[in-house]
């Protein structure tokens, strides 16, 4: 009996020794593989990931870099163009509102910032209005057509009384306009990239200012004044600067791509 117990004990010890040895070897393999991957990540080129980051940085500024003026520089345009930036509403037509903030004032501030950014990139810019003036929507389109501008963008704020939970940016282009859709998509995506606003999508419509204009035209609903968060952002000078930067960046992207 004692000899059998001894054999059993030796068997258990051998089994335990093999198990421990296996665990040690497994741990060493994990360490070696981790070192290999770490060295690979450090010394091998990253390829497309770096390229994407470089492209992003060329267009989009980081939050820490933002100021409330037009000092942020956009890429220069590759050909001479002129655009009209249309601040929605004005004068006797305040548009929608949130508290004491009227749409007409917000759109004018953003439009002036868009103008500054575009001019810094070499674009000739005309504002449909430069102060609190009422201009009929048909007259806005006529101003753009008579000036012979290459692009048109109209800046607005949205409002939805029955759904105050809805927020975000919408960008409209004229139905069946391929160039308008391309411009709207680029403007919209640049706005989302810099503001991180909720995406309410690029949409077709036949608003007068984008229907009656002869050039590629878009209308940007920069946010919902019926939504508390959007209203707070749209009345903030830094956010207005970001919104303007996104609009300008999208227009410049369109200009440069169309000239390739």
Secondary-structure map with pairings?
Layout: H1 2-43, H2 48-59, E1 82-87, E2 97-98, E3 101-102, H3 103-120, E4 124-127, H4 137-147, E5 151-158, E6 169-174, H5 178-195, E7 199-205, H6 208-211, E8 217-224, H7 228-234, H8 237-258
Parallel strand pairs: 1-4, 1-5, 5-8, 6-7
Antiparallel strand pairs: 2-3, 6-8
Helix pairs in contact: 3-8, 5-8
Q: Your description of this structure?
A:
The chain is built from 8 helices and 8 strands, in the order ααβββαβαββαβαβαα. With 260 residues, it is α/β, with parallel strands linked by helices. The protein has a 6-stranded mixed beta sheet with strand order 4-1-5-8-6-7. Strands 2-3 form a two-stranded antiparallel ribbon. Helix 3 packs across helix 8 and helix 5 packs antiparallel against helix 8. The chain is elongated, with a radius of gyration of 29 Å.
What's this model, at a glance?
This protein has 260 residues and is of the alpha/beta class. The chain contains 8 helices and 8 strands.
Descriptive labels:
260 residues, alpha/beta, two-stranded antiparallel sheet
């Amino acid at each position: 009996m004692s000899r059998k117990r001894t054999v059993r004990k030796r068997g258990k010890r051998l089994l335990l020794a093999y198990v421990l040895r296996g665990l040690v070897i497994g741990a060493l393999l994990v360490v070696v593989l981790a070192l290999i991957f770490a060295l690979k990540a450090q010394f091998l080129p990253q390829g497309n990931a770096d390229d994407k980051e470089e492209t992003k940085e060329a267009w989009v500024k980081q939050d820490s870099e933002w100021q409330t003026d037009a000092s942020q520089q956009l890429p220069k345009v590759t050909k001479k163009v002129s655009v009209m930036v249309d601040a929605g509403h004005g004068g006797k037509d305040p548009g929608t509102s949130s508290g004491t903030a009227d749409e007409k004032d917000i759109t004018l501030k953003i439009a002036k910032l868009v103008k500054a950014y575009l001019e810094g990139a070499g674009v000739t810019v005309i504002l449909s209005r430069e102060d609190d003036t009422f201009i009929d929507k048909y007259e806005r389109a006529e101003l753009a057509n008579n000036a012979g501008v290459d692009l048109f963008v109209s800046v607005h704020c949205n409002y939805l009384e029955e759904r105050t939970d809805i927020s975000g940016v919408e960008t409209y282009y004229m139905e069946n306009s391929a160039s308008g859709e391309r411009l709207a998509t680029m403007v919209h995506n640049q706005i989302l990239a810099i503001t991180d606003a909720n995406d309410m999508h690029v949409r077709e419509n036949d608003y007068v200012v984008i229907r009656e204009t002869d050039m590629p035209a878009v209308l940007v609903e920069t946010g919902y004044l019926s939504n508390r968060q959007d209203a707070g952002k749209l009345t903030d000078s830094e956010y207005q600067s970001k919104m303007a930067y996104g609009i300008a960046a999208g227009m410049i992207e369109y200009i440069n791509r169309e000239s390739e």
